[in-house]
Specification:
- The chain is mainly β.
- The protein contains 1 helix and 28 strands.
- The protein has a 20-stranded antiparallel beta sheet, with no helix packed on it. The chain has a two-stranded antiparallel sheet with strand order 12-13.
- The chain is globular, with a radius of gyration of 26 Å.
């Protein structure tokens, strides 16, 4: 509108029939936002409205994996599926208003005083208000198809639904602790939320948070400590804490140590649910997770190595019958990551390999090895007016018990029926960037059908076949 006020609109619509029976989707997303920032920069206002609508049929997966794997059916629409009359509808919308009051500023550098550069805030008080709601409906006109283990209420039609709403108010104070806008700082916050859940259950929480950042550029040091604690309300006692430490040990090398911890109440739906096929009522204990990660990277040689350990207590999950469960013992998982990028003239070869150790006796399933590789040609053309990339991405994981999906609840559950994986997915792509215009052309899963039909996303859900996708993003700058 002018230099102080702007508006933005966004709309996205996705429609697809899918590769198999009853995979059609109709998704719509819309947002409008505004930013008011006057010349003196003492006050800022941000506002946003968001609406999302998702409608999709659910087929419960293919009825017989052999029909897919032997390749006898060239038309995937002829492969029988488990559900013939089920669909799911989801809606969510939100409105957010944030107001910033800048109490002090950093001085504008002398070399920028004659430009349009605005002074950067040094101390800021800001308030955020938001209201949101979400709903979902699951419908199946054939509840006695044999897919579900139980039909509890209506044998003619399943119509399960849920609705939630929430109002949040938060107040924050942020201040710099040095003369550098990118230097040390701290922030304290207090937030109150209240709302309602399905079955007319109300909730309310009052929480406080702190965030401290220390920066010493000459020593190559960056440290951040943050935490949040809920001291009153439905989730009283919930807590999150995090630590990040980065130290440069050479001009192109750095060591990073990161720790995270949380103790939270399990998701409400895991404790209370009532539908046509499932019903449960539990009072689970708070779950906790501690994560420690150490990373060593070298930017000169474009490589790095990292190790991570996670400790879980009172872990919650959905079992192979689709019901929630909670472990009463703790367990530990370990992760190792190695990456290396190679460059030869205009060729790039980027590689990342992840190793994951999870004890066999616990209900958390992950592939032991995951690898990602990208081989592409990159060149600047027409005096760098055009940046071109062309190549192939490859993703691979070893065999593992991938989750099964329960459409009635929307939950991903563990299963011991069949392993998936041991299959490479290759995407061929061309990317072009012309100033503010980004264009891409991608052939996803280009090797579909060339290496056997054993590619799955989930149990009984084959991954998408070969598909050609085109996209364009154009940024308009004033």
């Amino acid at each position: 509108v002018n230099k102080a006020l702007n508006f933005a609109l966004g709309f996205q619509r996705i429609r697809s029939e899918g590769f198999y029976l009853r995979e059609n989707t109709n998704d719509n997303s819309f947002f409008i936002s505004s930013n008011y920032r006057p010349k003196k920069n003492k006050y800022n206002l941000l506002a946003q409205l968001v609406y999302n609508s998702f409608n999709y049929s659910t087929n419960g997966g293919i009825a017989n994996d052999t029909t897919f794997e032997d390749g006898s059916s060239l038309d995937k629409k002829l492969i029988p599926v488990n559900l013939s009359a089920a669909q799911r509808r989801e809606r969510n919308k939100s409105a957010t208003l944030s107001q910033y009051f800048h109490l002090a500023y950093f001085p504008v550098p002398a070399d920028l005083r004659d430009s349009t550069a605005k002074p950067q805030p040094r101390r800021t008080l800001f308030h955020t208000f938001s209201i949101s709601d979400a709903s979902w409906v699951y419908e199946d006109n054939d509840p006695q198809s044999g897919f579900y283990g139980n039909v509890l209420n209506d044998t003619v039609r399943t119509l399960d639904s849920a609705y939630t709403w929430k109002i949040e108010n938060s107040l924050h104070y942020r201040a710099a602790l040095s003369k550098d806008p990118e230097g040390s700082s701290f922030q304290v916050s207090v937030k109150h939320e209240f709302g309602g859940l399905m079955y007319d259950t109300a909730f309310s929480n009052l929480m406080a948070a702190i965030d401290f950042t220390a920066v010493e550029k000459k020593a190559g040091l960056h440290m951040n400590i943050r935490g949040q604690y809920c001291f009153s309300g439905t989730n009283a006692g919930d807590a999150n804490i995090g630590l990040f430490f980065r130290k440069s040990i050479a001009k192109a090398s750095a060591v990073i140590v990161e720790g995270k911890g949380k103790m939270v109440s399990p998701w409400f739906m895991m404790q209370r649910y009532s539908g046509n096929h499932f019903v449960w009522a539990y009072d689970f204990e708070k779950t906790s997770q501690m994560e420690m990660r150490m990373e060593l990277r070298n930017n000169k040689y474009r490589m790095g190595i990292a190790g991570q350990m996670n400790n879980f207590v009172n872990y919650t999950y959905f079992d192979n019958f689709g019901a929630p469960k909670q472990m009463t013992t703790s367990f530990v998982t370990y992760t190792g990551i190695l990456w290396k990028d190679f460059t030869w003239k205009k060729l790039r070869f980027n590689n990342k390999v992840i190793y994951q150790y999870v004890p066999d006796s616990i209900p958390l399933r992950l592939p032991e090895i995951v690898s990602k590789h990208s081989l592409f040609f990159e060149k600047n053309l027409f005096k760098s007016a055009l940046i071109l990339q062309a190549g192939v991405d490859v993703f691979f994981s070893t065999a593992w018990y991938s989750p099964m999906y329960m459409p009635a609840t929307g939950a991903f559950c563990i299963q011991n029926e069949k392993k998936t994986g041991n299959y490479p997915f290759a995407d061929v792509f061309v990317n072009m960037k012309i100033k503010t215009v980004f264009i891409f052309l991608k052939m996803e899963h280009a090797n579909s059908g060339l290496m056997g039909n054993t590619y799955y996303s989930l149990l009984h859900y084959p991954a998408p076949d070969r598909a050609l996708k085109f996209g364009l993003r154009w940024r308009f700058l004033d």
